[in-house]
Amino acid sequence: MLTHSQIWAAIDALAAHEGLTPSSLAKLGGLDPTTFNRSKRQNSEGQLRWPSTESIAKVLAATGASVDEFLQLIPRNPTPVRRIPFRPMRKAAHDWFDQNGQIRATGWDEIAFPSASDTNIFALEVQGDPFAPVYRDGDIIIASLDSEKRRGDRVFLLNDAGTAQIAVLGRQTATHLHLSTVQGSELPPCPLTDIRLLARIIWASQ
Questions:
Q1: pLDDT at 23
Q2: Considering only CA atoms, which of 31, 28, 6, 7 is closest in space to residue 19?
Q3: Percent helix, strand and coil across the chain, each rounded to 5?
Q4: Do the beta carbons of residue 182 and residue 157 sit within 8 Å?
Q5: Strand (E) positions, 26-163?
Q6: Residue 37 has pLDDT above 70, yes or no
């Protein structure tokens, strides 16, 4: 017998497989964007709400997935998942994090991601092809604020002016951080005093 959590986990898995949020998956299927939101999975009294067969049929048709493929996404021994902050990436990101480098409580959507010990992570959707061919339009990257950063790691960087970029970590001196583009071109050394936030990219939906 399928459980409420298994059905919703399969919808989340279908969205993740397509590189989408549950809201984007709903829109792709011609549904209201809030159809698969977490708030719709139970009512204010805590009673469970199930997705309709019509809504599932519409997103399967939109993604081209078969019923059998959808059933394969239903976890038999569910991997714990949690919802992490998510938003489309853009160059101007001054209002995404506070002055302490913590994710602001407003302005973010959420996306499902397998539970991990690292609690300070966030997701970004690549816009356009500035990082191609490594990351392309629509790819989702997961970045960790707390993970140890090593030379050669791909990182999300936010400078003091609020400009965001993705780069490859090079050597660090007492005053500067050396970076290169994901395509391999060396960037001008970045003063450490200009770096507001540095997060290691730990996963990408490529």
A1: 87
A2: 28
A3: 20, 30, 50
A4: no
A5: 81-88, 109-114, 121-125, 140-144, 154-159
A6: yes
- CATH code for the domain of 96: 2.10.109.10
Do 62 and 162 lie in a common domain?
A: no
Q: Are residues 109 and 137 in the same domain?
A: yes
Count of Cβ atoms closer than 10 Å to residue 99 Cβ: 6
Query: How many domains does the chain fold into?
Result: 2
Identify the weakest region by mean pLDDT among 39-48, 65-74, 151-160.
39-48
190-191 β-sheet, strand order: 109-114, 81-88, 121-125, 140-144, 195-204, 154-159, 164-172, 176-180, 190-191
CA distance 63 to 27: 11
Indicate if the pLDDT at residue 67 is higher than 70.
Answer: yes
End-of-domain residue from the set 46, 72, 98: 72
Q: Answer with the one of 27, 45, 72 that is the final residue of a domain.
A: 72
DSSP state of 57: H
**Would you say the C-alpha torsion 7, 13, 18, 22 has a positive or negative sign?**
positive
DSSP E strand boundaries for the chain: 81-88, 109-114, 121-125, 140-144, 154-159, 164-172, 176-180, 190-191, 195-204
